[in-house]
Amino acid sequence: MSSHRYRPRLPDGELAPLPWPVALYRILNHIAWPLEEGCGRWTVFLERVIIFLGFLVFCEHNEVDFHYLIANRQDMDNLLTGMPTYLILVEMQIRCYQLAWHKDRFRGLLQRFYAEIYVKEESEPQLFARIQRQMLATRINSTVYLLALFNFLVVPIQNVIYHRREMLYKQVYPFDNTQLQYFIPLLGLNFWVGVIITSMLFGELNVMGELMMHLNARYVQLGQDLRRSARRLLEAGDGGGDLASSYRRALTHILRRNVALRDFADRVEEEFSFRIFVMFAFSAGLLCALFFKAYTSPSGNVAYIVWFLAKFMELLALGMLGSILLKTTDELGVMYYTSDWEQIVHQSEDVAENLRVMKLVTLAIELNSRPFFITGLKYFRVSLTAVLKIIQGAFSYFTFLNSMR
User: CA of 246: how far to CAs of 317, 345, 383, in Å?
Assistant: First the structure.
């Protein structure tokens, strides 16, 4: 099936270079990653069967994880030990299968991204290097998430050493799951769910980051081209009627590029808005439970400490990327206003053309009066401000739980 999974290509047909977290996401997560366009009916049918079976496995894990919480509802420490895995399981089931339902739309977004937005290293080495620096936090976060998964995978080794039969997560089954014929398959399903969840966590963050930062780079290019167009015409020194008309044509071309970028940004918003809402909705409770376990027993909860760091970094990285894009698009209106258009009008002798230029500049400023920002179903903007509010809420929940304890 992996050979049938969509592999992004550049406009010339060459395979697009994928960052290692995205490449790993493509390989590991068959639930979320789309198939190649034009796959055969049997391939599509087989994938849908696998997705359905995976959904049943997630439902089974939901039941036994929730059963553990019910069984330990009187014991706060044990309850909060099972709470993080249950919360992330529910969150990932919603996010992962919502994406699975819209795989074709996701593939279309990636196709458009690599055809129109992606910044090549060969053509724009400085912009590309800047994007890599901006994405460094998401790469580090991916490594920390893999370390968190590794901490859970130590459980089978401990089972062998100490002659135990424990699951990777805190679960209570309605039958004796320690019998070997049940234990081994169930442990394998635990491992599969962990891989799907972890790859979704760091994979989607890196995909969103790539889309946002390459889009941000295109907006930066737009501002640079806007300033260059007026400067180039003024340096040519033609004060005749062609000056204003040449500038108007250049400005019209830039505005069309601006509209195309805005349309792509709206597509990104449409694709990720619901899943971002779900992520932020679960984040405060998840951070609170993780921090509580890390605070009350740090030596016995190394996995929760690493997981807390990964979640904390994930939110900060996403908020930082959202703030970068928000700041760049917020400056676009000012860029049009300070693009030396008044010098063009001053030196041009064609009054009618000057009037058209001023109307076009006014239209450009109005179109960019509202910056672009990714939201969670229009309830909040993805920015550092929103992330800090979530962290503040998580700390408030933690203070309350700690006082009860």
Answer: 42, 12, 39
